[in-house]
Amino acid sequence: LFEKVFSVKDLPSITPDGKAIELQLNAGLSQGFEHSKDSGAVGIGLYRTEIPFMDRSFFPSEQEQTLLYQNVLAAFPKQSVTMRTLDVGGDKSLPYFPINEDNPFLGWRGIRITLDHPEIFLVQVRAMMRANVGHGNLEIMLPMISSVSEVEEASRLINQAYYELSLELEETNDTPIVKPKVGIMIEVPSSIFQLKELAEKVDFFSVGSNDLTQYLLAVDRNNARVSNLYSSYHPSVLRALNMIAEQANQYLVPLSLCGELASEPAGALLLMAMGYDKLSMNPHNILRIKWVIRHVEFKRAKIILSHALTFSNAKQVHNYLNEQLEQLG
Ligand code: PEP
Ligand code: MG
Predict the structure, then answer these.
(1) Which residues contact 98 (CB under 8 A, 6 or more apart)?
(2) Three-state SS at 97
(3) At CA 143, angle to CA 138 and CA 146, rounded to 5?
(4) pTM, 2 dp
(5) Residues 6+ apart with CB under 8 A from 120
(6) Where does the UniProt annotation locate this protein (predicted)?
(7) Is 139 near ligand 1, meaning CB less than 6 Å away?
(8) pLDDT (tens digit, 9 = 90+) per residue, 29-47?
(9) Predicted complex ipTM
(10) Cβ–Cβ under 8 Å, residues 145 and 109
(11) What average pLDDT is seen over the chain?
(12) Atom 8 in ligand 1: which residue has the minimum CA distance?
């Protein structure tokens, strides 16, 4: 199996009938980038900045963050690197920033924390933009967006950081700094009913299917007792994903998905049929997904999707998709 999958290593990620699907990496540590680049991925679709923050005893300074981000941006010249602003809270805590709550996944998490602490946010986005000088491949992504006002507030802070940095660099640097694209994670159910308004405020959407599944189904993504209820193939999740793709296409917003679903053959097949033409995943899944893409015609994937959307429970969807995948070899 490994050999079969490995055979697509240097081939493009494109279906037999010519539909290209861009594959990107999920990352959080800078180790292993070299290896990842070999897989045929194009840039980073999700850089989880909280990961380098976790293994420390205090918040990294602006300078430390700048160095860290420079390494990441430099490893992927001319390929986009999407850096997500700090997404702590929920299940991810920093030893030097304790949060005690009864219900952390519904509490102080992601953008909620950084908007309450603009000094943390400003330092981080300034460091990102500083690191981007001379590279120009940075995109910024906001996690846990549940309302339009959060996007407005975060964009205002990003503009402020951009303005401050432009003034500072004007004196020392000839090349004007570029304003990065700013996008949001679609992972809180409220956001999927305001896609039109959100589309007007951002440059891209990236669906976080891990959290979107958790919040749509009201099933903790880490609780073994209810793990049998947690499935991104639940018909309601699939319909939500399909609706997001339809609207993103309608409003002309570039769309990707960076949750675990993208790294599963059955998931990737459905997503590509829905219209997700960018998928971001852990490096070790890239070749497997590329193999699937190269072996399913896009028009066949669309037929499979329309059938998958008719089932009434996740198990049936899953069984049906596995049958279809087995037919591919
Ligand atoms: C997600 O929620 O699907 C996602 C990609 O982000 P994280 O797993 O870091 O919450
Ligand atoms: Mg998430």
Answers:
(1) none
(2) strand
(3) 135
(4) 0.96
(5) 59, 86, 113, 114
(6) Cytoplasm
(7) no
(8) 765 566 666 677 889 999 9
(9) 0.99
(10) no
(11) 95
(12) 210
Q: Which ligand lies nearest to the CA atom of residue 92 in the structure?
A: 1
Q: What secondary structure letter does DSSP report for 261?
A: G
**pLDDT tens digits, residue range 136-186?**
999 999 999 999 999 999 999 999 999 999 999 988 877 778 899 999 999
**21: its two tokens:** 């699907």
pLDDT of residue 39: 73
What distance in angstroms lies between residue 257's CA and the mean position of ligand 1's atoms?
A: 10
Give which of 188, 21, 57 is closest to 111, Cα–Cα.
188
Look up tokens 């805590």; give the residue.
93
**Burial (0-12, 13-18, 19+ Cβ within 10 Å), 208:** buried
Strand partners, 141: 84, 183
SS3 48: strand
In the predicted structure, residue 71 carries a pLDDT above the cut 90: yes
CA-nearest of 168, 304, 297, 192 to 243 is 192
Give residues with Cβ within 8 angstroms of 3, minimum separation 6.
Answer: none
Q: For residue range 84-131, list pLDDT tens digits in order.
A: 999 999 989 999 999 999 999 999 999 999 999 999 999 999 999 999
Token pair recorded at residue 63:
């300078």
- Ligand 1 in reach of 30 Cβ (< 6 A): no
Of 160, 150, 151, 87, the C-alpha closest to 129 is 160
**Ligand 1 center to 183 CA (angstroms):** 15
